[in-house]
């Protein structure tokens, strides 16, 4: 469509201050203090600390995460219909922060129960935590779509978000095992309790900081009528969203599957001794921490690269590079720790920016929905995206527990050749398959830079005329 200087200026407005970008990013650090703990340690905690059989844990992940995934669109609809002096989405960061912290801590409270009681307790507390996570993270994710009308500004905010997210993951991977050992001594149960109490309190403060430092600037079109049936139909007809849905599901599956068995891999396959380090880090802690650091570094470099390349193109190239690195791990000898660190550094460096790029695309998808259908359903779009993430999390957690059981894993025992093979496959080939699936989905994504600019300008003119 014709472009004029006035519309171009309107489309480029909406830059955010450093304080607001950072404050927005700290919300994902709060999320990841628990989310990354679950990704990395929860299966290990349930099998090796709490004493639940891996097949039972896998089935619990399937049931609880399936139930939780269905809650996301409901929360999105609720958030879209919320109206307060603080906006639609920000109030939930204030209201739900304390329930979020309490529910996260309760998972690790570890009361003295029998075998059946432990399964029931784990199921109930995990379900409550995921409900609290949904109630605060659907609005938080939706905030990305209304924090600025500018796609470039949202991409920059996404960069801050994922630097902070991976910073939270770095804190988890770097500090959880040392803190558990330091605070609990030989009592690993007490160590997890004290450690997660610290992270619970910190997550509450971080969410409140995000609430205090951010604003909502993008409003629904004037006269917009809420129609759930119509919104759902428009969502299904939104081709860019459908493609990102698949990409997000595959992405979460391969990341969580690999993180879930990392502790198992170094405990049973590669050895987890700390003889290489003069500090308190064992091999798995150093591996996970270096991975999070390289993901942060990759996101920090994105600002330089994104000005020169299209988001879609970058995401495709980086995703297939990550997949190739994951395949390589199957062929690296278990004793060659240095080569593992090098290959993992490249995998993490290419993985980090794709997360930020894809999340920035969701704001473009919300713009596309308003541009195409005349209705903006930011909360529903982001909540349905979280549904994809929860689905991927469900697949990864379920497969991890079931595959461990299928290959004959027995906690805290010397593993059979079959069990070692199963752990190795989940650390390399299986996540690589899902990473390739993500790359194929992104190849089909239709919104390149020129199309996004055209949509921004059209919406700016439309709103100015209204």
Automatic annotation (TrEMBL):
<feature type="transmembrane region" description="Helical">
    <location>
        <begin position="313"/>
        <end position="332"/>
    </location>
</feature>
<feature type="transmembrane region" description="Helical">
    <location>
        <begin position="241"/>
        <end position="266"/>
    </location>
</feature>
<dbReference type="GO" id="GO:0005886">
    <property type="term" value="C:plasma membrane"/>
</dbReference>
<dbReference type="Pfam" id="PF13347">
    <property type="entry name" value="MFS_2"/>
</dbReference>
<feature type="transmembrane region" description="Helical">
    <location>
        <begin position="192"/>
        <end position="212"/>
    </location>
</feature>
<feature type="transmembrane region" description="Helical">
    <location>
        <begin position="383"/>
        <end position="403"/>
    </location>
</feature>
<dbReference type="GO" id="GO:0008643">
    <property type="term" value="P:carbohydrate transport"/>
</dbReference>
<dbReference type="InterPro" id="IPR001927">
    <property type="entry name" value="Na/Gal_symport"/>
</dbReference>
<protein>
    <submittedName>
        <fullName>MFS transporter</fullName>
    </submittedName>
</protein>
<dbReference type="GO" id="GO:0006814">
    <property type="term" value="P:sodium ion transport"/>
</dbReference>
<keyword id="KW-1133">Transmembrane helix</keyword>
<feature type="transmembrane region" description="Helical">
    <location>
        <begin position="423"/>
        <end position="445"/>
    </location>
</feature>
<feature type="transmembrane region" description="Helical">
    <location>
        <begin position="338"/>
        <end position="362"/>
    </location>
</feature>
<dbReference type="InterPro" id="IPR036259">
    <property type="entry name" value="MFS_trans_sf"/>
</dbReference>
<feature type="transmembrane region" description="Helical">
    <location>
        <begin position="52"/>
        <end position="71"/>
    </location>
</feature>
<feature type="transmembrane region" description="Helical">
    <location>
        <begin position="160"/>
        <end position="180"/>
    </location>
</feature>
<keyword id="KW-0812">Transmembrane</keyword>
<feature type="transmembrane region" description="Helical">
    <location>
        <begin position="120"/>
        <end position="140"/>
    </location>
</feature>
<feature type="transmembrane region" description="Helical">
    <location>
        <begin position="92"/>
        <end position="108"/>
    </location>
</feature>
<feature type="transmembrane region" description="Helical">
    <location>
        <begin position="286"/>
        <end position="306"/>
    </location>
</feature>
<keyword id="KW-0472">Membrane</keyword>
<dbReference type="GO" id="GO:0015293">
    <property type="term" value="F:symporter activity"/>
</dbReference>
<comment type="similarity">
    <text>Belongs to the sodium:galactoside symporter (TC 2.A.2) family.</text>
</comment>
<dbReference type="InterPro" id="IPR039672">
    <property type="entry name" value="MFS_2"/>
</dbReference>
């Amino acid at each position: 469509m014709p472009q004029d200087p006035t519309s171009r200026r309107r489309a480029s407005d909406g830059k955010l201050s450093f304080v607001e970008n950072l404050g927005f990013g700290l919300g994902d650090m709060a999320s990841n203090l628990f989310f990354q703990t679950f990704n990395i340690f929860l299966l290990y905690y349930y099998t090796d600390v709490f004493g639940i059989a891996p097949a039972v844990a896998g089935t619990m992940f399937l049931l609880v995460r399936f139930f939780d995934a269905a809650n996301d669109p409901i929360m999105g609809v609720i958030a879209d219909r919320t109206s307060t002096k603080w906006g639609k989405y920000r109030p939930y960061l204030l209201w739900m922060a304390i329930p979020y912290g309490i529910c996260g801590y309760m998972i690790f409270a570890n009361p003295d129960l029998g075998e059946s009681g432990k399964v029931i307790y784990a199921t109930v507390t995990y379900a409550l935590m995921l409900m609290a996570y949904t109630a605060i993270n659907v609005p938080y994710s939706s905030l990305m779509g209304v924090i600025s009308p500018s796609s470039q500004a949202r991409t920059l905010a996404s960069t801050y978000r994922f630097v902070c997210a991976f910073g939270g993951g770095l804190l988890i991977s770097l500090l959880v095992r040392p803190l558990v050992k330091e605070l609990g001594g030989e009592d690993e149960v007490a160590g997890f309790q004290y450690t997660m109490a610290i992270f619970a309190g910190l997550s509450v403060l971080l969410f409140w900081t995000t609430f205090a430092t951010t604003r909502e600037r993008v409003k629904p079109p004037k006269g917009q009528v809420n129609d759930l049936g119509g919104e759902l139909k428009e969502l299904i007809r939104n081709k860019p969203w459908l493609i990102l849905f698949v990409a997000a599901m595959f992405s979460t599956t391969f990341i969580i599957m690999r993180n879930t068995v990392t502790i198992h891999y170094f405990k049973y396959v590669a050895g987890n001794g700390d003889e290489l380090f003069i500090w308190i880090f064992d091999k798995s802690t150093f591996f996970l921490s270096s991975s999070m650091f390289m993901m942060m570094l990759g996101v920090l470099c994105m600002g330089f690269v994104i000005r020169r390349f299209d988001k879609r193109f970058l995401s495709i190239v980086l995703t297939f590079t990550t997949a190739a690195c994951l395949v390589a791990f199957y062929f690296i000898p278990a004793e060659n720790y240095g080569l593992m660190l090098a290959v993992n550094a490249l995998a993490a460096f290419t993985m980090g920016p794709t997360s930020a790029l894809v999340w920035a695309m969701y704001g473009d998808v919300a713009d596309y929905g308003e541009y195409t259908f005349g209705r903006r359903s930011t909360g529903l779009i982001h909540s349905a995206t979280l549904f994809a993430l929860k689905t991927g999390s469900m697949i990864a957690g379920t497969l991890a527990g079931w595959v461990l059981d299928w290959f004959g894993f027995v906690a805290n025992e010397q593993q059979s050749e079959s069990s070692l093979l199963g752990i190795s496959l989940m650390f390399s080939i299986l996540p690589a398959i899902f990473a390739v699936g993500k790359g194929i989905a992104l190849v089909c994504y239709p919104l390149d830079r020129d199309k996004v600019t055209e949509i921004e300008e059209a919406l700016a003119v439309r709103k100015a005329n209204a």
